[in-house]
């Protein structure tokens, strides 16, 4: 059996999250809602800063209706709440869980980040406690989990402009060698050549552009021709179609205003779990349209809307703050 990554629709053991602290405390209501929905059907692992946080967070979750019997806590220092990006990328080799630990530098040392040195150590620190027997493999290249999308079989999709900015001294050929070493030598690497201009913090992550719903079908965002991200999405759809995938489009909900900031209501940043899908909501009528379409992508799963505006205005969404353990 060769090394492979998981498709996010596969059976999972838990959803991991780093509980918001410092200036990110405004995310807590969204986190409470996510944990409530997750724990109806599967376990949740919450990373907290110190022992004293456990009881406080647990009480908040009880009040929000979460099943706290499904919640476990891990104490570890971290910087930001965006665990998709600094946490492990999951794979499997001969039945053994593989946690791939790439470098993390807070989105190119973003001025908006708390820092990244603690974030960059989280996977190595907590893996022995949470996943005993798993292997941690570290790679000397920056790669955020939000910028790699796997079909669970033999292909991954990444946004090249983001990877080029993060690793200016590592060319495309060498990056592909590192990725194949990590994900499996048979892995097909598909690069998207344009990043959405609106994604100013991350510089362009795949989980806001294109998402697999099966090994052969991928959903790509679609917006009107006047939107600044239009060309990036059209280019992505063309590239993925030429790569041999069936491409389905998911319309955005247009531009909305939140806390004096304009942003596009993008529904690609969903979270898939055991029997459920959490879909970003923006407080607009189109939320229901997107929910119905995504329900069609995942028949048999409960689809829930979760208001993500507080996350989205800060550069991410539901998928960005979660990390799926397989």
3D architecture notes:
The chain has 326 residues and is of the alpha/beta class. It has a single domain, classed as 5-stranded Propeller (L-arginine/glycine Amidinotransferase, Chain A). It is built from 10 helices and 19 strands. The strands form 6 sheets. The protein has a 4-stranded mixed sheet with strand order 1-5-6-7, sandwiched between helices. A 4-stranded mixed sheet has the order 4-3-2-19, sandwiched between helices. The chain has a 3-stranded mixed sheet with strand order 8-9-10, sandwiched between helices. Strand 11 and strand 12 form a beta hairpin.
Total number of strands: 19
- Overall morphology: globular
How far apart the termini lie comes to 17 Å
Rg computed from alpha carbons, rounded to a whole number of angstroms: 18 Å
The CATH class label is Alpha Beta
Supply the CATH architecture.
5-stranded Propeller
- Let me know the largest β-sheet: 4 strands, mixed
| Sheet with the most strands: spatial strand order | 1-5-6-7
The domain count comes to 1
Q: Helix tally?
A: 10
Low-confidence stretches: none
- Fraction of residues in β-strands: 25-35%
Question: What proportion of the residues is helical, as a percent range?
Answer: 25-40%
Order of helices and strands: EEHEHEHEEHHEEEHHEEEHEEEEEHEHE
Name the quaternary structure. single chain
CATH homologous superfamily name? L-arginine/glycine Amidinotransferase, Chain A
Average pLDDT level: 97
Pfam families: PAD_porph
GO biological process, one term: putrescine biosynthetic process
Organism: Mucochytrium quahogii
Keywords: Hydrolase
């Amino acid at each position: 059996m060769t090394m492979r990554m998981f498709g996010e629709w596969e059976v999972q053991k838990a959803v991991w999250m780093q509980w918001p602290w410092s200036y990110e405390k405004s995310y807590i209501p969204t986190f409470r809602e996510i944990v409530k929905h997750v724990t109806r059907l599967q376990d949740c692992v919450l990373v907290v800063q110190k022992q004293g946080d456990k009881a406080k967070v647990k009480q908040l979750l009880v009040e929000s209706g979460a099943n706290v019997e499904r919640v476990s806590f891990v104490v570890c220092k971290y910087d930001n709440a965006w665990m998709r990006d600094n946490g492990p990328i999951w794979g499997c080799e001969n039945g053994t869980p593989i946690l791939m630990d790439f470098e993390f530098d807070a989105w190119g040392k973003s001025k908006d980040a708390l820092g990244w040195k603690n974030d960059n150590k989280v996977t190595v620190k907590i893996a022995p406690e949470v996943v005993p027997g798993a292997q941690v493999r570290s790679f000397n290249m920056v790669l955020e989990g939000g910028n790699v999308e796997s079909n669970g079989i033999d292909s991954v999709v990444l946004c090249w402009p983001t990877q080029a900015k993060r690793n200016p001294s590592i060319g495309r050929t060498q990056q592909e060698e590192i990725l194949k070493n990590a994900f499996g030598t048979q892995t097909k690497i598909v690069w998207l050549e344009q990043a959405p201009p609106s994604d100013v913090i991350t510089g362009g992550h795949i989980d806001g552009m294109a998402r697999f719903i099966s090994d052969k079908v991928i959903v790509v965002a679609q917006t009107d021709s006047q939107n600044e991200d239009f060309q990036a999405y059209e280019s992505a759809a063309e590239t993925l179609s030429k790569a041999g995938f069936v491409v389905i489009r998911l319309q955005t909900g247009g531009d909305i205003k939140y806390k004096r900031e304009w942003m596009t209501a993008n529904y690609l940043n969903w979270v898939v779990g055991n029997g459920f899908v959490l879909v970003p909501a923006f407080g607009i009528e189109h939320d229901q349209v997107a929910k119905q379409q995504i329900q069609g992508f995942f028949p048999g799963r409960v689809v829930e809307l979760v208001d993500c505006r507080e996350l989205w205005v800060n550069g991410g969404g539901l998928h960005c703050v979660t990390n799926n353990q397989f």
